[in-house]
Amino acid sequence: MVHLYKKGILFFTGLFLLASMHVYGQTDTAHITQVVSFSGSGNPTNNELSWATTFENKCSSFTVERSCDHVAWEEAGKIKAEGSTTKQIPYYWKDESPYTGFTYYRLKAIAADGHFTYTPSIVVECKVQVSLEISPNPANGIIKINVLGTENESSHVNIKNMMGQILFSTDVVNNHAVELDIEAYPEGVYAVDVESKNGSAIQKLIKR
């Protein structure tokens, strides 16, 4: 179900329609832009938004606003608009800090004279997960371990041998690689596992 927001009214509908957006603060039919599509997709660490216009009339920029509750909105990013055109123009923007779970987005189209208008909103689910990056692998010296997950959160990493004995254990900040020297480890296969509030992951490490 798509959540639509326009002029302070919340609508619920299964069909997402975008029409020409009228300038706020004016009584005539002047337009800033016509947005013909606005969609988003959730990834493990970010949300990607895309939209397209088929008409722009002195459109200066698009501000991307987001909300976790569809009530309080904040500015998340800004993109320069094409300006004035009747061609179809695609736009893309990536939210590197989406809310956990669902994030609502809307576009604020701003004209060169300061007038603005909003698109209906969309909602995107951030499929937050956790994963591991180990490099190099196989290795015989210093390795880098990077936990890919929610920004500004921590995860716990263990390195175990094939008998399940923990050889290394530490807390790490997600998306910040840590270095470890495994030169003293006997040759063989080890298990690197990570646990966070968003899930767990395990990867094989080969020591040569």
Describe this structure in words.
With 208 residues, the protein is mostly beta strands. It folds into 2 domains: 125 residues, Immunoglobulin-like (Sandwich), CATH 2.60.40; 77 residues, Macroglobulin (MG2) domain (Immunoglobulin-like), CATH 2.60.40.1930. 0% of the residues lie in helices and 61% in strands. It contains no helices and 18 strands. The strands form 5 sheets. Strands 6, 7, 9, 10 and 11 form a 5-stranded antiparallel β-sheet that branches. It has a 4-stranded antiparallel β-sheet with strand order 3-4-5-8, with no helix packed on it. It has a 4-stranded antiparallel β-sheet with strand order 15-14-17-18, with no helix packed on it. The radius of gyration is 23 Å and the shape is elongated.
H and E string: EEEEEEEEEEEEEEEEEE
Stretches with pLDDT under 50, minimum 5 residues? 1-30
Radius of gyration over all CA atoms, rounded: 23 Å
Strand content: over 45%
Number of domains: 2
Number of helices: 0
For the record, give the distance between the C-alpha atoms at the N and C termini, rounded to a whole number. 53 Å
For the secondary structure, the number of strands is 18
CATH architecture tag of the largest domain: Sandwich
User: Main β-sheet, in a few words?
Assistant: 5 strands, antiparallel
Please give the CATH class of the largest domain. Answer: Mainly Beta
Q: State the helicity in percent bands.
A: under 10%
Average residue pLDDT: 84
Q: What do we call the CATH homologous superfamily of the largest domain?
A: Immunoglobulins
Structural class: mainly beta
How would you sum up the global shape? Answer: elongated
Here the CATH topology of the largest domain equals Immunoglobulin-like
